[in-house]
Amino acid sequence: MKNKIFSIIFCFAFYLGFGQSIERQVIGSAGETLTNGSVQLDFTVGELVVSTITDGTTTLTQGFHQGEIQLLINLSAVAYLQGAALNPNSGEDTLMRDDLRVANYIPTTSPYTDNLVCNSSVFTVTGVNAIVDWIWIELRDATTNTTILYSQSALLQRDGDVVAIDGVSPLSFTAASDNYYIAIKHRNHLGIMSASTIALSETTTVVNFSDSASQITYGTEAQTTLGMTDGVVAMWSGDVNGDSVLQYTGATPDTPSILSNALNDSGNFLNLPTYVVVGYNVNDVDMNGGAQYTGATPDAPYILQNTLSHSGNFLNLSTYSIIEQIPQ
Ligand SMILES: [Ca+2]
Ligand SMILES: [Ca+2]
Ligand SMILES: [Ca+2]
């Protein structure tokens, strides 16, 4: 294609050369030939792109590139965190609580590895679209679902919408349209992944993980209805030590973290197990803004209730472990 176009321009310039003093020139910057299986494409840099072609795994823009081509795919996921959905506000059974936002505890910098920063004004929104917390989204390879291709921090609204750091928009990934497994993680909940791959493209795709009548998660009992309003299934709360397992007592329990957090707090002069550590804290299982081991509003019992509620715990063992249903 490049040679052909160069030939046309050359002929045109040759023709003009007889009657005009004006000359046309092509200033070539760079060009290349790309091959992927049966698809081959020649291109130069610096002029219009005329179309986009794909063989399913590789997308090439045909014609002349203008700098870097960005491919975007958009995702509108819906998920519930059990912790924030326990003991809902009166008259708001279908919404998660936003106690952390109300108390101004949610940091503007994401707690996850990309450390995305949002504007503090995002946390002034109230109502169904108020922000509950930061959350983490992964797009995984359709062939090897343990391979994380893309990931980013996002924000979770009270009605379950997972949105970008502006607090409103669907999530965008700089990635090609393709099929992906979608995984969602949270700092003190067990993560989840879609059971099948989902086609994502520039057109926003809605993926609802919270419909108990139409569960789409990978594995067995990946989420819970315990304490949830009718129709909602939510991510298990209580993995406060972040090992992808929920356990009350036993070999790798979560509850000692809640106790030691209280005992080691600089404000707990009397070393009381009932001391409440306020703020943004992984030991705050019910996300009410306080982490308490035992006392009036303790967090540890939620972990016991969860393990006792799991259908695999036939013997009602307090040592039962709920394992995160994301392939490792
Ligand atoms: Ca919403
Ligand atoms: Ca754990
Ligand atoms: Ca709490």
Please describe what this structure looks like.
By secondary structure, this protein is of the alpha+beta class. It folds into 3 domains: 2-65, no CATH class; 72-235, no CATH class; 245-323, no CATH class. The chain has 5 helices and 19 strands. One calcium ion binds at residues 239, 241, 243, 245-247, 254.
Portion of residues within helices? 10-25%
| Associated small molecules | calcium ion
Low-confidence stretches: 1-20
Strand content: 25-35%
The termini sit apart by: 46 Å
- SS field, number of helical segments: 5
Q: Briefly, what is this?
A:
The chain contains five helices and 19 strands.
Characteristic key phrases:
single chain; 328 residues; alpha+beta; six-stranded antiparallel beta sheet; four-stranded mixed beta sheet; 5 helices; binds calcium ion
